[in-house]
Amino acid sequence: MTSIPLLETVGLRKTYGKNEILKGVDFAIEPGQVKAVLGPSGSGKSTILRLMALLEPVDSGSILLRGREIGVATGRDGRSIPLPERKLARERTDIGMVFQKFNLFAHLDVLHNVILGLTEVHGVSKAEAVDRAERMLERVGMSQRMRHYPSELSGGQQQRVAIARALVLDPSVMLFDEPTSALDPELVNEVLTVMEDLAEQGMTMIVVTHETRFARRVADEVALFDSGVIVEQAPPEQFFTAPEHERTRAFLSHIH
Fold first, then answer.
1. Nearest to 48 by CA among 95, 101, 89, 1
2. Which residues pair with 16 in a beta bridge?
3. In angstroms, rounded to a whole number, what is the distance separating the alpha carbons of residues 188 and 218?
4. The domain 104-170 is classified under which CATH number: 3.40.50.300, 1.10.10.10, 1.10.150.20, 1.20.1580.10?
5. CB 222 within 8 A of CB 236
6. C-alpha atoms less than 13 angstroms from C-alpha of 173 in its C-beta half-sphere
7. pLDDT tens over the chain, length 256 residues
C-alpha cells in the first residue's frame, strides 16, 4: 500500500508581477525523509518553502499535510479561500521554518526568543514554555547561552537559536532556507552538525542549500529546481555522479 506523503504540493503556481516563479510544481516528502533542494538564484526553491510554510498564499494548486489540504478553507461558492491569519498560525505549528537570516528579536535574550511563539501565539504557560525551550536549547548546544542577547552571539549560535525556536513548537517537518548562507565559513559546520543530528533522530526535513557535501551525506533525495520547475530528483549518489538531465550536469559543473 502506498503511504501518504507527510507534506506535498500539487500543481503549485506562484507569480510575482509578470514573473511566474513556480510553474505547476509537484513535490512531496515522506515521514522521516530528508530532501535537499539545489538550484540557481531565482529558480523557485525558496518560494516553494515559503508557500509550504504558509507564509504566502498560493496562486493555484494545493499544499497537503498528511493528505489534508492546508492554508485554505472552502467558501460558500465551493471555491478555496485563504484562511484567516489566526487559523494559519495554528496550521503553521506543524511546519517549522528556518531562514537565511536569523530573525531573532534583538531586545530579547535567547530563552525569551525561543518561548515567545509558545506563550504569545499558542497560549502555553510560561513554566511549560521555559521547560520546553531549555530542552530544545540543550538539543542544539545552546543551553549555556540562554541569558545572552543576539548581539552577544556568533552567527552560527544565532542560527542554532533560530532552529531551537522552530523545534520548540514540535513540528512534523522542518524547512530550511539556505540556513548557512549568511554565516562565515568557519561557522557553517556547527549549524550543519545540528541539522545532521536532527536527520539522524528521524526529523523530516526539506533543506534548500548550496552545501553539496551536506546534501550528499545526509539527504535521502536531492532535487534540482530551475526556472520554476523540478528538473531532476534522485538519490544523492545518482544525482551527483550520474544525473540524467543535461541541465543537472551543467549546474553541477558550475558548483564543483
1. 95
2. 19
3. 15
4. 1.20.1580.10
5. yes
6. 25
7. 457 899 999 999 999 999 999 999 999 999 999 999 999 998 999 999 999 999 999 999 999 999 999 998 887 887 888 888 888 888 898 999 999 988 899 999 999 999 998 898 788 899 999 999 999 999 999 999 999 999 999 999 999 999 999 999 999 999 999 999 989 888 999 999 999 999 999 999 999 999 999 999 999 999 999 999 999 999 999 999 999 999 999 999 987 6
Q: What is the dihedral of CA 45, 166, 159, 180, to 10 degrees?
A: -20
Q: First CA to last CA across the chain, in angstroms?
A: 40
How many other CB atoms sit within 10 Å of the CB of residue 165? 26
Domain residue spans of the chain? 104-170
Task: For 35-59, give one letter per residue: b (16+ CB within 10 A) or e.
Answer: bbbbbeeebbbbbbbebbbbeeebe
Distances 178 to 182, 203, 227 between C-alpha atoms, Å: 8, 18, 18
| Distance, CA of 173 to CA of 42 (rounded, Å) | 24
The rounded distance, in Å, linking the Cα atoms of 222 and 232 is: 8
3-class SS of residue 131: helix
What pTM was computed for the model?
Answer: 0.93
C-alpha cell of residue 223: 532535487
